[in-house]
Write a structure and sequence with these properties.
49% of the residues lie in helices and 5% in strands. The protein has 539 residues and is mainly alpha-helical. It folds into two domains: 34 residues; 468 residues, Alpha/alpha barrel (Glycosyltransferase). The protein has a three-stranded antiparallel β-sheet with strand order 3-4-5. It is globular and about 65 Å long. The N terminus and C terminus are likely disordered. InterPro entries: 6-hairpin_glycosidase_sf (IPR008928), 6hp_glycosidase-like_sf (IPR012341), Glyco_hydro_9 (IPR001701), Glyco_hydro_9_His_AS (IPR018221). Keywords: Carbohydrate metabolism, Cellulose degradation, Glycosidase, Hydrolase, Polysaccharide degradation. It is an enzyme of class 3 (hydrolase). One of its GO terms (biological process) is cellulose catabolic process.
Length: 539
C-alpha cells in the first residue's frame, strides 16, 4: 500500500533555480511509487505452470518431420520430408526440425532429446501428476525413433538432412518443401565424436525413461547408445570438420571432449557399469571436465551439465571412496556455474538484465535462461537431498535460494518481466505473435491447399505485419536483449525464432513448479480456519 506523503508548505529548489511545489513533488513521488508497485505486483503473479507444461509439449508436435500420427494435436501441420534419405538409400523420415526452418540437424536434435529425457528422469513423478507423462514419452520417442534409423551401422550415423543455405533461401511450409534433401553422415573416415556422443547421451538417458514402461525399447536404445559411444571414442574428431555444410549453423565450437564425458556419465547412470564412470574420472583433466569453469550450458557446451551429473554422484556418496578427489573437482566446477548464475561468484558472474534475466548473448539468449533454470532446479534438489548447502565465494547459499532463482527465471519467461510479455508462445495475455517460423507464418495447407513456392512465401507471407495465421503454441522464442527490450517482428530472428532446445529443459521445470503449487493449494485448503468467534462484552 502506498503511504500518503505530507510535505507541509515546504518547497524544493531545482538545480536550475526553478522552484517545484511540494504538491508537484508529491505527485511525482507517488507516480514513481505506482510504477514500481505495479512492476513488483507483476513480478509476484502466480503463474499456471501446468498450462505452461501442457503448451510446451505441444510445441514438439509442431516441429515434427515425417508422417504424422493419428493422434497429432497440432492440427495445422501435415506430413513432410517423406523422401528424406531416399537418394542415399536409407530411411531418414522423421525426427524434428530444430527451429523455424526445415533442416534436420543432428546435434541440437540430440541435445533436445537428452534434456527432455533428463526432465523425465528427474521430474517424472511431477510430469505424471500433471497428466503429461504420455505426451513427454511421445516427444522423446519421436526423436529416438529417428536416431535408431540414422544409426545404420555401428560406425555410421547420419548427421543432417537438408542444406541450410538453400533452405534459408526459401520461405515455404514444410508440406510444400522444394529444397534439396541432401543427407550427410559421419563414419570411420569422417568422424564426429561430438555428434555421436551426444546422440549416445540422448539414447542412454531415454533408455532410463522407458525402462519400466517399455523394457524392450529401453534395451534397444541402450544398445545403440553403447555402440555410438564406442564409435565416438574410437574415431575421434569434430563432426563439423567432416561435414562442411554444418559449420555455419551448428558448428562444434567447444569440440567433442565435453560430449564424450557427457555420454559416459549418462551411460553410467543408465547401466550402473563402473567402466563409464572410470572413463569420466580418468579423462576428467585431459578432457577439461575438471578444468573448464563455465558460465553457460547449451547444445554445444556441455561442461556444466557434466559437472553437475558428476557432483550428484559425490553428493549421493556411493562413489566417494573410490573417486572422491576427482568428483570433488567436478563439484567445484559445477558450483562455479551455479554461483555465477546467483551473482555470488566474486567477479566472475553471469550478466543479468535490470529485469532479472540471465544474459549470455544477443542471439537466442533464452536458450541459456532455460538451460540454467533446469540445472539450478536440479542442483537445488541434489543439495537438499544430501542436506548440504552451496558454498560460493560470496558466502553460503541454501538450496531454497537456488530454487527460488530458478523460479524467478521461469516467471520471467512467463511474463513477470518489464515488457509484461510471455516468451512462451500461446501462454498468457501477451506473447509473440510473429514468430520467425515458416510453417506458423503461412496459412495452413488444410485451409488453403494451393502450393506455395520457394520465394512466393517471402513475397506473400514473410513481410506481412499481421500476426502469424498459426500459433506456435509452446515455443520459447529467443527473447529480449540485455535491456529487456523485445521487438515482435518476423524478420527479427535473433529474438523471435524459437528452437526445440529452448523449450526442452522447461518441461521438467514447469512440472516441478506445478507440483509445488498444487501442494501449496492443497495445504491451504486443508488448514482449519484461523478465525474464531469474538465475544462482545457490554461496558
Amino acid at each position: 500500500m502506498l503511504r500518503r506523503l505530507v510535505f507541509g508548505n515546504m518547497k524544493i529548489k531545482g538545480n536550475d533555480g526553478s522552484v517545484m511545489s511540494t504538491r508537484t513533488t508529491a505527485l511525482l513521488v507517488m507516480l514513481l511509487g505506482v510504477f514500481f508497485f505495479s512492476w513488483s505486483c507483476a513480478a509476484e503473479i502466480k503463474h499456471d505452470y501446468r498450462d505452461a507444461l501442457h503448451k510446451s509439449l505441444l510445441y514438439f508436435e509442431a516441429q515434427r518431420s515425417g508422417r504424422l500420427p493419428y493422434n497429432q494435436r497440432v492440427s495445422w501441420r501435415g506430413h513432410s520430408g517423406l523422401t528424406d534419405g531416399l537418394e542415399q538409400g536409407v530411411d531418414l523420415v522423421g525426427g524434428y526440425y530444430d527451429a523455424g526452418d526445415h533442416v534436420k540437424f543432428g546435434l541440437p536434435m540430440a541435445f533436445t532429446v537428452t534434456m527432455l529425457s533428463w526432465s523425465a528422469v528427474e521430474f517424472g513423478h511431477e510430469i505424471e501428476a500433471a497428466g503429461e507423462l504420455q505426451y513427454t514419452l511421445e516427444a522423446i520417442k519421436w526423436g529416438t525413433d529417428y536416431f535408431i534409423k540414422a544409426h545404420t551401422y555401428p560406425d555410421v550415423l547420419w548427421a543432417e538432412v537438408g542444406d541450410g543455405d538453400t533452405d534459408h533461401y526459401c520461405w515455404q511450409r514444410p508440406e510444400d518443401m522444394t529444397t534439396p534433401r541432401q543427407a550427410y553422415k559421419i563414419d570411420k573416415t569422417k568422424p564426429g565424436s561430438d555428434l555421436a556422443a551426444e546422440t549416445a547421451a540422448a539414447m542412454a538417458s531415454a533408455s532410463i525413461v522407458f525402462r519400466k514402461v517399455n523394457p524392450h525399447y529401453s534395451h534397444l536404445l541402450l544398445n545403440h547408445a553403447q555402440e555410438l559411444f564406442q564409435f565416438a571414442d574410437k574415431y575421434r574428431g569434430s563432426y563439423d570438420s567432416s561435414i562442411e555444410a554444418v559449420k555455419s549453423y551448428y558448428g562444434s565450437i567447444s569440440g567433442y571432449k565435453d560430449e564424450l564425458l557427457w555420454a559416459a556419465l549418462w551411460l553410467h547412470r543408465a547401466t550402473g557399469q563402473e567402466e563409464y564412470l572410470d572413463y569420466a574420472v580418468e579423462n576428467a583433466e585431459c578432457f577439461g571436465g575438471t578444468g573448464w569453469a563455465m558460465t553457460e550450458f547449451s547444445w554445444d557446451v556441455k561442461y556444466a551439465g557434466v559437472q553437475i551429473l558428476a557432483a550428484k554422484l559425490l553428493l549421493e556418496g556411493d562413489y566417494a571412496s573410490r573417486h572422491e578427489d576427482t568428483l570433488q573437482q567436478y563439484k567445484s566446477k559445477a558450483e562455479h556455474y551455479i554461483c555465477a548464475c546467483l551473482e555470488k561468484n566474486g567477479g566472475n558472474n553471469i550478466e543479468r538484465t535490470r529485469g532479472g534475466m540471465l544474459f549470455v548473448r544477443q542471439w537466442n539468449n533464452m536458450q541459456h535462461v532455460t538451460s540454467a533454470a533446469f540445472l539450478l532446479m536440479a542442483y537445488s534438489e541434489y543439495l537438499a537431498a544430501a542436506e548440504q548447502e552451496l558454498r560460493c565465494p560470496n558466502g553460503p547459499v541454501q538450496p531454497e535460494e537456488i530454487f527460488e532463482f530458478a523460479k524467478s527465471q521461469t516467471d520471467y519467461i512467463l511474463g513477470s518481466n518489464p515488457m509484461h510479455t510471455s516468451y512462451l508462445v500461446g501462454y498468457g495475455r501477451k506473447f509473440p505473435k510473429r514468430v520467425h517460423h515458416r510453417g506458423a507464418s503461412i496459412v495452413s495447407f488444410k485451409k488453403s491447399d494451393g502450393f506455395i513456392g520457394c520465394t512466393q512465401g517471402y513475397d506473400d507471407w514473410f513481410g506481412r505485419s499481421k500476426p502469424n495465421p498459426n500459433v506456435l503454441v509452446g515455443a520459447i522464442v529467443g527473447g529480449p536483449d540485455r535491456r529487456d527490450r523485445f521487438r515482435d517482428y518476423r524478420e527479427n530472428f535473433m529474438q523471435t525464432e524459437a528452437c526445440t532446445y529452448n523449450t526442452s529443459p522447461m518441461v521438467g521445470v514447469f512440472a516441478k513448479l506445478n507440483s509445488l503449487l498444487v501442494a501449496e493449494q492443497e495445504n491451504v485448503q486443508q488448514q482449519p480456519s484461523s478465525s474464531s468467534p469474538v465475544s462482545h462484552q457490554s461496558s
